[in-house]
């Protein structure tokens, strides 16, 4: 059963803690993306990766970090440097190269207590 | 600055009517355009992509693209209450590292029985 999975679905964090959001895909896609969605703000790009062991900052990368050690996995760490991390986090993947179509996972809702 | 503009709505149409959703973009070199549907609390779901000027039809959905006017639209024929959702317009941009998408903030559609 192919698709994109994100875990956990809901995550609660205390201020000052780092948390890592998981994103896994079994679609054999080269490209993976992380977005943040706030009410009324649309989707904003955090980081993206077109190939294993390479990634680029998006528009709002400050306070976040990523790794791309495997083609299937693109975890996002929300660090304590991110001042307003409460949001809906969406992971997407795509074939990359000559295709820019993206497909989304179910999302992780992060709340800072 | 790459921008994608959508009217936030809500756009209210009666069941069975045609819903027309509009999007303008600022990057003249954009080549790929996408419409996503997002139900409340869920992740975006790809509806259609369009790459060439003109119309593209898929079932009850028609995407229209006019690159000279930097305008893309989505028509939903025979609107159903289940079409009530937020519709996101996305436009590609090419960086040195590959493709990414810019998203509009979305238009909320309400189909009333």
Folded structure, characterized:
The complex is a heterodimer of chains A (113) and B (113). Chain A has strands spanning 4-7, 10-13, 19-25, 31-38, 42-51, 54-57, 64-66, 76-78, 87-94, 103-104, 108-112. With 113 residues, chain A is mainly β. In chain A, strands 2, 4, 5, 6, 9, 10 and 11 form a 7-stranded mixed sheet that branches. Chain A has a 4-stranded antiparallel sheet with strand order 1-3-8-7, with no helix packed on it. Chain A starts with a strand and ends with a strand. Chain B is globular, with a radius of gyration of 14 Å. In chain B, the strands form 2 sheets. In chain B, strands 2, 4, 5, 9, 10 and 11 form a 6-stranded mixed sheet that branches. Chain B is mainly β. The interface between A and B is medium-sized, with 26 and 24 residues.
List keywords for this structure.
heterodimer, A: 113 residues, mainly beta, seven-stranded mixed sheet, four-stranded antiparallel sheet, 11 strands, globular, B: 113 residues, six-stranded mixed sheet, five-stranded antiparallel sheet
Helix content of chain A: under 10%
- Span from first to last CA of chain A? 35 Å
Strand composition percent of chain B: over 45%
Number of strands of chain B: 11
Mean pLDDT of chain B: 92
> What is the radius of gyration of chain B computed over CA atoms, rounded to a whole number of angstroms?
14 Å
> SS-based structural class of chain B?
mainly beta
Beta-strand residue percentage of chain A: over 45%
> Treating each run of at least 4 consecutive H or I residues as one helix, how many helices of chain A?
0
Q: What's this model, at a glance?
A:
Chain A has about 110 residues and is mostly beta strands. Chain A contains no helices and eleven strands.
Write the layout of secondary structure elements.
The complex is a heterodimer of chains A (113) and B (113).
Chain A: E1 4-7, E2 10-13, E3 19-25, E4 31-38, E5 42-51, E6 54-57, E7 64-66, E8 76-78, E9 87-94, E10 103-104, E11 108-112
Parallel strand pairs in A: 2-11
Antiparallel strand pairs in A: 1-3, 3-8, 4-5, 4-9, 5-6, 7-8, 9-10, 9-11
Chain B: E1 4-5, E2 11-14, E3 19-25, E4 33-38, E5 45-50, E6 54-58, E7 61-66, E8 71-76, E9 85-95, E10 98-103, E11 107-112
Parallel strand pairs in B: 2-11
Antiparallel strand pairs in B: 1-3, 3-8, 4-5, 4-9, 6-7, 7-8, 9-10, 9-11
């Amino acid at each position: 059963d192919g698709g994109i999975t994100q875990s956990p679905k809901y995550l609660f964090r205390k201020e000052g803690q780092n948390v890592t959001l998981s994103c896994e895909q079994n679609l054999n896609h080269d490209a993976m993306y992380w977005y943040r969605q706030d009410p009324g703000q649309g989707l904003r790009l955090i980081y993206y990766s077109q190939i294993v062991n390479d990634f680029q900052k998006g528009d709002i990368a400050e306070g976040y970090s990523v790794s791309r050690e495997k083609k299937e996995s693109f975890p996002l760490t929300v660090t304590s440097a991110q001042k307003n991390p409460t949001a809906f986090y969406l992971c997407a993947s795509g074939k990359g190269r000559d295709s820019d179509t993206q497909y989304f996972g179910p999302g992780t809702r992060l709340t800072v207590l | 600055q790459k921008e994608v503009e959508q009217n936030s709505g809500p756009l209210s149409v009666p069941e069975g009517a045609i819903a027309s959703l509009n999007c303008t973009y600022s990057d003249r070199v954009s080549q790929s355009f996408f419409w996503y549907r997002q139900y409340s609390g869920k992740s975006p779901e790809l509806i259609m992509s369009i790459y060439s000027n003109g119309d593209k039809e898929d079932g009850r959905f028609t995407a229209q693209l006019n690159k000279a006017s930097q305008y893309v639209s989505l028509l939903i024929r025979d609107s159903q209450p289940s079409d009530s959702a937020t519709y996101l317009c996305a436009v590609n941009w090419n960086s040195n590292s590959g493709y990414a998408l810019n998203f509009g903030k979305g238009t909320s559609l309400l189909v009333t029985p």
